[in-house]
Amino acid sequence: MSQEITDAFEDIDFPTLERSLRHPRTFFSSALSILTGVVTVVACIPLFSVLFMLIWRGGKRLSLSLLTETPPSAFESGGGFGNAIVGTLLMVGISVLISVPFGVLAALFLAEFGSDSKTASAVRFCAKLLTGFPSILAGVFAYAAVVLVTGTYSAPAGGIALSILMLPIVMLTAEEAIKMVPHRMKEAAIGMGATQTQVVWKVILPTALPGLLTGVMLAVARAAGETAPLLFTALNSNYWIVQDGELALMDPTASLAVLIFNFSGVPFENQIELAWAAALVLVMIVLVINIGGQILSRNKVTS
């Protein structure tokens, strides 16, 4: 049979499929490919220039003392920003604890239980509005809802402000990740007698985990670098959040973003160098969190 098919095509004169720039379509395709490559390189120039500047300016001050000391005063030399690192991690952690559960639960409702309802449409609309929400307004809301009520600037107030910015990112990316779970997997689980709750916990969430973690990492990357909300909620501090063996949660808390904002505008060289080093450390923290999330998601998928 195969020989008969081969003999049938022997008499047909197929055109030679050569790639030549003399053909208009080939020339147009090659030109667009080159243009795309050039635009990609140009778009990467600002990114790599910023990274180079951070490594060059901030790398000179990197040392163990930066991670273990507190910020210096105006005319002091040395110092560090260890308290700001701890404060940043604490407030981002609080915001993750608030935004991730609510974001994933909302995404489950939007994707599985009420995707076509009017409530779902309203929630999606509000979430998309919140993605473009000015960060300073989140700080003002947390200031009115938490700072004025408690009477003090604090890490929980900063975490709540950051969670407002993280929630729509987590919710929308989680919804898309859940929608990408194949329907045949859900139907197979239901056919084997699994309840809706078991389908969610045993099938949907584990399968959508890489997408969920990607959304969380994107939200963390945004929250870690925000300054305006923390100026209204956590303010700043030159002290460690743990004082005399006690966790001072309800006191003003330092953060890397606010420290960079404060030190970058002073006329003292030591503080300016610390601001560059703090910016580099902040980028490294976000990078480590993203890499860790990707590794974790791959391990979960493999297992």
Could you describe the 3D structure shown?
The protein is mainly alpha-helical and 303 residues long. The chain has helices at residues 2-8, 24-58, 64-68, 82-113, 118-131, 135-150, 155-179, 183-191, 196-224, 228-233, 256-263, 269-302, and strands at residues 242-243, 246-247. A two-stranded antiparallel ribbon has the order 1-2. β1 and β2 (246-247) form a beta hairpin. α2 (24-58) packs across α12 (269-302). The longest helix is centred in the first third of the chain and has 35 residues, at 24-58. It is globular, with a radius of gyration of 26 Å.
Structural class: mainly alpha
The count of β-strands is 2
User: Which strand order does the major sheet show?
Assistant: 1-2
Q: What is the number of helices? A: 12
Strand content: under 5%
**Percent helix range:** over 70%
| SSE ordering | HHHHHHHHHHEEHH
CA-based shape: globular
| Main beta sheet | 2 strands, antiparallel
Low-confidence stretches: none
What is the topology?
Elements: H1 2-8, H2 24-58, H3 64-68, H4 82-113, H5 118-131, H6 135-150, H7 155-179, H8 183-191, H9 196-224, H10 228-233, E1 242-243, E2 246-247, H11 256-263, H12 269-302
Antiparallel strand pairs: 1-2
Helix pairs in contact: 2-12, 4-7, 4-9, 5-7, 6-7, 7-9, 8-9, 9-12, 11-12
What keyword list fits this structure?
303 residues; globular
